[in-house]
Amino acid sequence: GPPFDPFDKWCPYLNEDKFNDCNQSYYNVGYTKELFRPTWIFNNYGIEYPTATNIIFSNGKLDPWSGGGWRQTTTNVGSLYSYVVEDSAHHYDLRGEHPLDTQSIKELRNKEKYLYKLKIIFLFLLI
User: Fold this and answer.
1) In which element (H, E) is residue 119 found?
2) Residue 50 pLDDT > 90, yes or no?
3) How is 58-118 classified by DSSP, letter by letter?
4) With contact defined as beta carbons under 8 Å apart, do 102 and 86 qualify?
5) 61-88 pLDDT, tens per residue?
């Protein structure tokens, strides 16, 4: 965290800047503009998961890569859940409890526990 945080508060991602960084670093090994494909993963795998089930995605706005999350808002589609927490990182909710945990993390953990319990009850009823 501040004042030692290596990430700027506002860190825009610009394709041209990223290409220039890559080109400067890897030009000597044959890197070209054709190899720079910032939308490749979306074009090949999509941004929707129509066959996925029972996943809880948790993303935190403290991550510089939070923009790559499944959803940018808290929502759910079927049994896919996306929780976006302003004062968290993407895996903070999976760590053990700590006295300095924020209220939003405590609430997210409770929501996740509730969803896990519902799923276990549902699966038990199917047996």
Assistant:
1) helix 103-126
2) no
3) EEETTSTTGGGSS-SSSEEETTEEEEEETT--TTGGGSPP-TT--HHHHHHHHHHHHHHHH
4) no
5) 887 777 777 888 899 998 899 999 988 8
Q: Where are the domains of the chain?
A: 11-46, 49-126
**28 close to 5: Cβ distance less than 8 angstroms:** no
Q: Each residue of 105-114: b (16+ CB within 10 Å) or e?
A: beebbebbee
Within a 10 A sphere around the Cβ of 101, how many other Cβ atoms? 16
Q: Which range has highest mean pLDDT (10-24, 36-50, 88-102)?
A: 88-102
Residue type, 49: Y
The SS3 of residue 57 is: strand
| Predicted confidence band of residue 125 (pLDDT cuts 50, 70, 90) | confident
Rounded to the nearest 10°, the torsion over CA 113, 115, 117, 119 is -150
Instruction: List the strands of the sheet with 55-60, edge to edge.
Output: 55-60, 80-85, 75-77
Mean pLDDT confidence for 40-46 = 79
Q: Alpha-carbon torsion 62, 67, 72, 76, what sign?
A: negative
